[in-house]
Design brief:
about 80% helix; about 0% strand; disordered N terminus; mainly alpha
C-alpha cells in the first residue's frame, strides 16, 4: 500500500510536469491546473503548514509517514469542494493561521500523538486550507484540473517536509532533532505573526 501510494504520487507529479512547462494560462483546463498548482505555493501560511505536516509525519514515523499527509490531501479536497460550491466555513483565515501555529508547535515539542489523532488534527486544518483554495478558484478555471493542481502541489510540499526530516536526521539524532524542533518553533512564531497580521 505504501509503495503503491508513493508510486501514484510520483506518477501524478511526473504527469504534471509537462503541463506546467507548456501551459498557456487562461485556457480552460490548463489554466485550472496551473492556478491550482500555484495557489498552495503562493502564500507563506500554506507553505509552512504543509511542510510542517510532512515534518510531523516524519517525526511520528511508521504508517503515519503516509497516512498523515494523505489524510490532509483528501480532506483538503473536500474543503476545496465546499469552497467551490460556496458553502460557508467560518474563520477560514484564522483556521489557516492557527494551523501554522499548532503544527509548528507540535513539531517543536516533538509531540508523539497516535496516528489516528494526528490524522484528525491535520484533517481539521485541511478543511480550512481546502476551502481557501476552492473559494479562490478563478471563474474561467476547470474545476477538476484546478483541484488536481492544488492536490499535487500540496502533496509535493508534504514530501518536502518529509524530505527535510530525513535529511536533517542524517546530521545525527541529537543535532537533527534540535534543527527540526527549531524549525517547528520558527514556524509557530511565524504563524502568530500571520494571525495578528504582522506577516
Amino acid at each position: 500500500m505504501k509503495s503503491a501510494l508513493k508510486s501514484g504520487l510520483l506518477a501524478l507529479a511526473a504527469a504534471a510536469l509537462p503541463a506546467v512547462a507548456y501551459a498557456h494560462t487562461g485556457v480552460g483546463q490548463t489554466s485550472g491546473f496551473v492556478h491550482g498548482f500555484s495557489h498552495p505555493v503562493s502564500g507563506l501560511d500554506h507553505i509552512l503548514a504543509m511542510v510542517m505536516v510532512g515534518v510531523f509525519a516524519f517525526q511520528l514515523g511508521g504508517r503515519a509517514i503516509w497516512l498523515v499527509p494523505t489524510t490532509f490531501v483528501l480532506v483538503m479536497a473536500l474543503g476545496g469542494a465546499l469552497g467551490v460550491a460556496g458553502v460557508n466555513v467560518p474563520f477560514v483565515e484564522t483556521g489557516i493561521a492557527l494551523s501554522v501555529i499548532v503544527l509548528g508547535a507540535i513539531v517543536a515539542l516533538n509531540v508523539k500523538a497516535p496516528t489516528a489523532v494526528a490524522m484528525g488534527v491535520v484533517g481539521l486544518f485541511a478543511i480550512f486550507h481546502g476551502h481557501a483554495h476552492g473559494a479562490e478558484m478563478p471563474e474561467d478555471a476547470g474545476g477538476a484540473a484546478y483541484a488536481t493542481g492544488f492536490m499535487i502541489a500540496t502533496a509535493l510540499l508534504h514530501a518536502t517536509g518529509l524530505g527535510l526530516g530525513f535529511l536533517i536526521a542524517r546530521v545525527g539524532e541529537r543535532q537533527g532533532s534540535f534543527v527540526v524542533r527549531t524549525a517547528g518553533g520558527l514556524a509557530a512564531v511565524a504563524g502568530v505573526g500571520i494571525l495578528v497580521g504582522v506577516i
